[in-house]
Amino acid sequence: MNAHLSIRGVHKSFGANEVLRGVSLDVPRGNVVAFIGASGSGKSTLLRCINLLEPIDDGEIVLDGTDISAPGFDANVARRDVGLVFQSYNLFPHMNVMRNITLALTHAAGADKSAAESTAMDLLTRFGLADKARTYPEQLSGGQQQRVAIVRAVALKPSVLLLDEVTAALDPQLVGEVLDLIAELRTSGMTMLMATHEMSFAHSIADTVCFLHEGTIHESGTPQQVLDAPREERTRAFLARTNRR
Amino acid sequence: MRKTKPLVALALTAGLLLAACGDDGDSSTADTTVAAEETATADTTATADTTATEAAAGGTGNECTAGKTLGEGKLTIGTGNPAYSPWVENDAPESGEGFEAAVAYAVAEELGFSKDTVAWVRTSFDEAIQPGAKNFDFNLQQYSITDERKKTVSFSDPYYTSNQAIVGFADSVAANATSIADLKDLKFGAQAGTTSLDFITEVIAPSSEPFAYDDNAGAKAALEAKQVDAIVLDLPTAFYVSAVEIEGTKVIGQFPANAGSGADEFGLVFDLDNPLVECVNTALAALKDGGELAAIEKQWLSDKTGAPVIATE
Amino acid sequence: MNSASSNGPSRASARRAFEEQRRRRSIAIATTSTIAFVALVVVLVPRMPRWDRVKQSFFSGEQFADSFPRLLDAFVLDLKIFAWSVPIILGFGMLVALARVSRNPALFPIRALCVIYVDLMRGVPVLLWIYLIGFGVPGLGLERPWNSPLLWGTVALCLTYSSYVSEVFRSGIEGVHESQRAAARSLGLTHGQTLRLVVIPQAVRRVIPPLMNDLVSLQKDVALVSLIGPIEILRQAGIDKSKFANFTPYVVAAVIFLCVTVPLTRTADWLLARERRRTGGTRVAA
């Protein structure tokens, strides 16, 4: 099958601690996969491995038929095609919003300044942040910062977007605007993998939900299958704990 | 238990303070020779005597010096740290070896002090000629008598007259200079704050600014590193440097006595308006008349002539 | 205690009045104590028994005027040395800092060398390095003008100050959170680009105050070059002091130094404040 992104038997350890113990998954183009699981189950690590921020110990990551995890493969090329957005936004504080977005465009993707700025402006306008173009990150609210972070990742036109618990650090009122943005990206056909705690959001937009437990995918299926009627005992226990919130 | 600790600390501090205060030699030299003192009170100022009168061991000065010295019955003399040859040999003025050490002891004897009632202290060159109270009766470190210095310290009559001299490498451009004109394009070095440096800037007036150093050690190091072509010093030191200290150098020349600010006359340095100056001048006069000063000079500074004279016109 | 009614506006105005009164009181106390102190100094000091002598020794107007042009001329040398040294020190200091924070195993020998370099240069007094390098290197047999004490004295200064500055830079770089690097790398920026565009700009902004400290200190240590010959301002002040038996030349030198260091530090403060205003969010008031 011609999956957009294929993860096969990925193992990752930090010292003596084995965090990923053989994760395998095929993601068709335009699909949204939601990872759920307890802290320490490996969600963040998995996303960081797909983006090649962490080198994997064993297994393969194949994007559009190319093994990007192969030794010697230029990680920077892969990273332009696989965007990663962090829980703590990580915007560059010494640059304004516009520069945050255009930096990678001009230096990593080789675009010229005016092309980069117009791309950035289009995206900012599309997501309602046009008037913030010249402000600095510290002057924005959390929700705005996270939306800028997503725009920054999307500006490089990646074919896959990874979202690592992007709403976990936000106030509840600000979560909505970020989720709206993600929903819009989905409509435009972006393949996305997201680690999240937002069960209702996962339910509404994910095509596949994977429950990660102790470094492996314990259960996976449609949202209806995994979230509404989980087969596995551990999945049920996890969902019971989180739903009590 | 707890009470004794602060007491111990207090005792230690007090002890340290006492030790520090008692260090100007007051308590150290023993006053064991009380008996000898009586015999030494006889008038010892030499008149027509050609040989210096030997004061009895434990001599505490004469009528003139009474009450004018820092320490009662003692003479405190200051010199440099380190003190260089040929002025003091082996940096040990107590040995009496070296021109200035010998002159100091001759003056002391003339004043009625003996070797064991003379104490030495060390000061830097600058320290002794600054305004303010001194920790010595007089200080000798080849100090030239100048009008500016007379504003802050008092000088005795001169005990030595020296010309300025230039030292450089025998195989260098500087070596063949015979007139001031030949020297204009050379790079000079000298100790800062000395008449030697003034001599360079005022008399030689070279085309490039000279280098100045904290002490002659710096000037010598610069000469060896060939950062300067020549250094200016008083004549005796110049001979010592070229003969013993830096290989391959020679005294290129000396300047005549009427050059610029005049030949340097060395004087003993005293606190401003110190009454002891009179006594010392009397002693110096006696030593000169008696030929003793000349003898000391001959013994320690034998190479007074021998360097070519450089014309200043 | 508080007789104000629960009426909003009057409670607010009561608070304003209270704070106004408190502010006026603290200003009054501050002003009076400052005036009192200055008055004490200005009135009492001249009445001390030997003030005239001290004034003549340290603050002689005549001597000031006489020494000033000479010292200003000598100061040009200090400025030249400073102007040459600063870019070299900043550049070399940054290189050493980068070498020390790099995690590339291949660079281990360079990292080790940098540690030794920093330990040595910092551990030994600058004075000793000036003598060792300023006299020692030329003494090995260099010809003029390569044996110039100005050249090697400046080299000694640059080597020692680079070691101090490299540690300041290193702390700045290590203070930039790892997540900044992660974000930059995730966007496809190379290691070098990440350092240059994201890490170093943030690191440098953080360490401007301690860096300024080092630069002001450098400006004064430039005078150490005089130990090996060149006559710069402090040496000239010393020569004048010996010649005229007066300490006023040192006061002249101090005034000239302040004319440079004070604007320097105020400019740095202003730059920092401007940066904070531009990028900052809300600040806690008082």
What is the N-to-C succession of helices and strands of chain B? HHEHEHEHEEEHEHEHEHEEEHH
Question: Which CATH class of the largest domain in chain B?
Answer: Alpha Beta
Unreliable spans of chain C are none
Biggest sheet layout of chain C: none
Instruction: Indicate the low-confidence ranges of chain B by residue numbers.
Output: 18-56
Which sequence of SSEs, written as H and E, runs from N to C of chain C? HHHHHHHHHHH
The CATH homologous superfamily of the largest domain in chain C is termed: MetI-like
Q: What fraction strand of chain B?
A: 15-25%
CATH topology of the largest domain in chain B: D-Maltodextrin-Binding Protein, domain 2
Q: Structural class, from secondary structure content of chain C?
A: mainly alpha
List the total number of helices of chain B.
11
Alpha carbon gyration radius of chain C: 27 Å
The quaternary structure here is heterotrimer
Total domains of chain C, how many? Answer: 2
User: Which strand-content bin applies to the residues of chain C?
Assistant: under 5%
What strand line-up does the widest sheet of chain B have? 8-7-9-6-10
Overall pLDDT of chain B: 80
